[in-house]
Amino acid sequence: MSDYVAQNHAPGFTCICHKCQEIIFSEREYSELLYQNRYDNSELTYNDMHFIGITGGVGAGKTAILSYLESNYPCRVMLADEIAHDVMEPGRDCYRKLQELFAKDQVFEADGQIDRKRMAQVLFSDEEKRLALNNIVHPAVKQYVIDEMNRERAAQKNEVLILEAALLIEEHYDEICDELWYIYTSEKNRRERLKLNRGYSDEKIDNIFASQLSESTYREVCREEIDNNHLPEDAFSQIDALMKARQVEKVQKRQTTEE
Predict the structure, then answer these.
(1) Which residues pair with 52 in a beta bridge?
(2) Pairwise CA distance, residues 210 & 205, whole Å
(3) Hey, what's the torsion of the CAs at 7, 121, 93, 87, to 10 degrees?
(4) Is 23 left (phi over 0), alpha (psi -120 to 50) or beta?
(5) How buried is 169 (Cβ within 10 angstroms: 0-12 exposed, 13-18 middle, 19+ buried)?
(6) Which residues contact 202 (CB under 8 A, 6 or more apart)?
(7) pLDDT tens digit sequence for 170-226
(8) pTM for this structure?
(9) Residue 114 phi/psi, 5° resolution?
(10) Is 107 helix (H, G, I), strand (E, B) or coil?
(11) Among 87, 64, 57, 27, residue whose Cα is nearest residue 168
């Protein structure tokens, strides 16, 4: 989750607020056996591009995990938060729909760009518009993801495609991804990180934690769990083991500076 979304505890522009998550998940109880059957399969085959969805709570350290994967393995990383930004840009179908939805709310700047802070304020006080925005943006994000998945499979350039999304479970990305991974960090460690790195108050952190899925739900739905409570190297070694099991070999680290 980006700093912008987390700071506005979204009902922000991507509406990643998890406000209705318990309702969403309860409506999906019928699929619990499907999840169980899927993840109890003895083996997955990895003779094609593998699509992994990664999720976890705010402050779990997902950014470091994604950076390690992208730097060390033949994979492409997509961020749902960034995709949501892109599909809302002027000229896109979502943008035209948002112009109609927010026509009277003064959320568009002189150059046509969306004033994200102003939009977040409107959404915070207008549940109907928040839901309407969800219905516009979320399907567009998912369609983008599906299109990119198909392109990647056809190109056969990367062995692994990775999607990070705060609402990975709530938005049913298990139906698209081959498997989901959960980045686990205890609430105590997440709280300390959020205070240190983002300057959040305990009250703000409590509100964020209360809005997110429970650890048990993440574990129930996700095939793999990466413990990110200790040194980064500990988490990286877990990733290496998971990738090895999927027959994905490391590549030479990409150079970040000129020699």
Answers:
(1) 162, 179
(2) 8
(3) -10
(4) alpha
(5) buried
(6) 191, 195
(7) 999 999 999 999 999 999 999 999 999 999 999 999 999 998 999 999 999 999 999
(8) 0.78
(9) -80, 130
(10) coil
(11) 57
